[in-house]
Amino acid sequence: MGVDLGDLFDKKEIELIELKGKVIAIDAYNTLYQFLSIIRQRDGTPLIDSHGEITSHLSGFLYRTTNLVEAGIKPVFVFDGAPPAFKNNTIEERKKIRTEAREKYEEAKAKGDEEEAFKHAQASSRIGGNMIDDAKNLLGFMGVPVIQAPSEGEAQAAFMVREKKAYAAGSQDYDSLLFGASVMVRNLAVSGKRKLPGKSVYVDVKPELIELEPGLLKLEISREQLVDIALLVGTDYNEGIKGIGPKKALKLIKKHGSIEGALGELNAEIKNLAEIKALFLAPDVTQDYELKWKKPDSAAIIKFLCEGHDFSQERVSKAVERLLEASDEGQKTLDKWF
C-alpha cells in the first residue's frame, strides 16, 4: 500500500533509543495490517481465539507497544476515518487481490506446502469484524492515546508532526512525506527480520529515519512536485502511468516543472488529478484530539485478553509488568513520564 519512493530518499538507520522521549504518531491501519500479515502459524493460519476471532493484531499491539514504551517512546496510534470517494477503486481492487490470495492459500494448505501457504496467507490479510474496536480498546487499557482521523490516518499523523505535536510519523508507507510529515520512521520495532522475496533468507531490519526537507533539497524539488512524482508512479488513489518509476518520474517533473507538462509529453491523463493533489496537499484533518498517556489498567488488559480472547495469563501478566515499569507507574510519580 502507498507509493514507493524509497529510491529517492536517504534513509538513516537508527536504534529505538534515539527516539527516547519523543512522540511518534503511528499509522494504526498500516501497523494492524503488518500484524495480520506476519503473526501467523507456520502454515499461514492467523492466531484465533475459541470464538473464532482473529487475535494476531492484539498480540502485536500488546508486545510491540510495550517494547516501544520500554524504549522510552511515547506512541500515539492514529486510525483511518472515511476514505475519499475516489479511493473506492483501489479498495475494490485490494479486495479482489485478497480473495484470490485466500484461494491460493487454501490450495497450498491442502497440498501441505507450508511455505507457499504462508506467502499467500500474508497477501490475504484483511481487516474485519471487531478488529478496529478491539485494537482501540486494548490500546486504551494500555494507557496509549488513540486518535480517530476524519479521513486518512497518515494525513492526520503528518499534520500532528507539522504542528509539532509529534516528532515523527510512524509508517511503512512513504505517503507520510506526501502529506507533509517533516520526519517519518519506518520499521518501528525493537528488532526484526525480513524474508527476501523468493528466497529462504532473512535479513536484519532496523528502524529508519527519513527527513522530508533534506530530501527535497537534495532532489531540488518542492513537496508539490514530490506529489506530482508520486502521481506519475501511482498511489493508493490512482494507478499511475505504465512504465514510470520514481527516477523516471523525477526526471519528467524536473524537466516540465509540474505533472501537467509531463502528462502532455506522455500523452496520458490521470483521473481525479486535481482532487488527489488536493488530498495530499490539503487533507482533511482534525485539531480536536488530546495527547494524554494514562496509567495502564493491568486488570482490564488481563481480563480483555485472557478472559475475552484466550491469551496466556502468564505471558500477558509479564508484558503488563514490563509496561507498568516502563511507564514509571510502579509506585512512583506519574509526572515524570506523563
What does this structure look like?
It is built from 14 helices and nine strands. It has 338 residues and is α/β, with parallel strands linked by helices.
User: What proportion of the residues form beta strands (DSSP E)?
Assistant: 5-15%
Structural class: alpha/beta
Rg: 21 Å
- Helix coverage percent: 40-55%
Q: What is the helix tally?
A: 14
Please outline the major beta sheet: 7 strands, mixed
What is the terminal separation in angstroms?
Answer: 34 Å
Strand neighbour order, sheet with most strands: 1-9-6-5-2-3-4
Spans with pLDDT under 50 lasting ≥5 residues?
329-338
Q: What's the SSE pattern?
A: EEHHEHHHEHEHEEEEHHHHHHH
What is the overall pLDDT average? 87
Strand tally, please?
9
Q: What would you call the shape? A: globular
